[in-house]
Amino acid sequence: MTSKLAYILAASHSGSTxxxxxxxxxxxxxxxGEINLSPQAIGSLDRYRCSCGELILECAFWQKIxxxxxxxxxxxDLSDAGTDFKASxxxxxxxxxxxxxxxxxxxxxxxxxxxxxxxxxxxxxQIQDRNAAFVSTALDVTGAGVLVDSSKIALRLKYLLRxxxxxxxxxxxxxxxxxxxxxxxxxxxxxxxxxxxxxAGGMGGDRKDQGMQMAQAxxxxxxxxxxxxxxxxxxxxxxxxxxxxxxxxxxxxxxxSRICQFLEIEPGKLPNSFRHVExxxxxxxxxxxxxxxxxxDERWRSTLSKQELTVFNRVAGDTNRRYGYE
Length: 326
Prior knowledge:
Elements: E1 3-9, H1 16-24, E2 29-31, H2 39-42, H3 60-71, H4 91-97, H5 104-114, H6 118-142, E3 146-152, H7 154-160, E4 166-174, H8 177-185, H9 187-190, H10 199-202, H11 214-232, E5 240-244, H12 245-250, H13 252-263, H14 300-303, H15 306-322
Parallel strand pairs: 1-3, 1-4, 2-3, 4-5
């Protein structure tokens, strides 16, 4: 029997954490945010907080996940969860896995080159098994019917779609590239918890070392859009749905009802305050905010300079307009 997984495919900072938590407040849905767990994503485990507020090493939910994984034959450790396809022991494989998804010919070459690595072949099967075990464990622990994975990464989705133990539906989330570009330039100020002390997983910090210049930010967003398009070309229309960040912020009930219909779960069971529903999410720092108010964030309109907008337009303007953002 396959486990149901809803995968949010998006560029980083497109609103995936908020969307996953809104869906996770539905009684038939559970989310842990990004299942693509890695030491780089978590950071210092002894200081990292679950969205429930507990230190993640003391969270009862994650202890149950650990026990459930053990019952399925997997030693589960958040510092090395074994769910990230890019975390290979082979330096050769890691180099091949680094580029974003491209067209079918280049992806065929990537897969052929990866198949030459015995380490990758062995670990690929192990990673697939651990992802399937994680999904089934989370569903068993919570009694939910669908798990939402907000990992966003197209390459991860490409490989998960080959997992015969998972029944996957894709939520393709899109946000104005200018807004996303601003978050890449200043992730702490525009894509993290409002309380500076809760940023970076509850450890605080300004994240200035992660900021980009607009040219790089625009290119990063454009490539995320392009690789998502490549993966979706291989899916039937029944397997994926397009959702706009601006739409679910402006019309959350209407948008979430449409997603519920797509996921074949009952609509109209979302609470007024999604923060009051117990959830155990890792990922973007907004999961540690306290307000349930859904507010459209268009600070890019007043923050980006004319020069920065010109740079964005040169690098990614055509792509942005193709999705209706003028």
